[in-house]
Write a structure and sequence with these properties.
114 residues, mainly beta, six-stranded mixed beta sheet, six-stranded antiparallel beta sheet
Length: 114
């Protein structure tokens, strides 16, 4: 079993390694993280309630992580890896003012930033 390094600020998760992501102040949903498709995930958000929160999760790896020149693909409401179409996460834009993210796919080890 891989060990997850996790730091949350003014936020909480429904499950330990993924699922729904919440603002700690108003309890509104700010995203959804798929359980098994990420190597690392950083998500900073400003909730519509004014709360500034963040999620930083990563698994240790010996693999080389490459910065992708491609953008994530949007399929339905999910941001997916453009290389293998693995669903990575969802941003619940109706509940947030601003956001930034960095996510690494655990299949192709490409990192995507916004």
């Amino acid at each position: 079993m891989r060990e997850l390094n996790k730091k949350l600020k003014n936020s909480r998760m429904l499950k330990n390694t993924g699922s729904w992501l919440y603002c700690d102040k108003c309890n509104k949903t700010v995203g959804y993280l798929c359980y098994t498709t990420y190597q690392s995930f950083k998500y900073n958000f400003e909730c519509k309630c004014g709360n500034l929160g963040s999620f930083a999760l990563s698994y240790d790896t010996d693999n080389n992580i490459e910065k992708s020149i491609k953008e994530l693909k949007l399929k339905k409401n999910r941001l997916c890896c453009p290389n293998d179409e693995a669903p990575l996460f969802t941003i619940v834009e109706k509940n947030i003012k601003n956001y930034s993210y960095e996510v690494c796919c655990n299949k192709c080890y490409n990192k995507f930033k916004h």
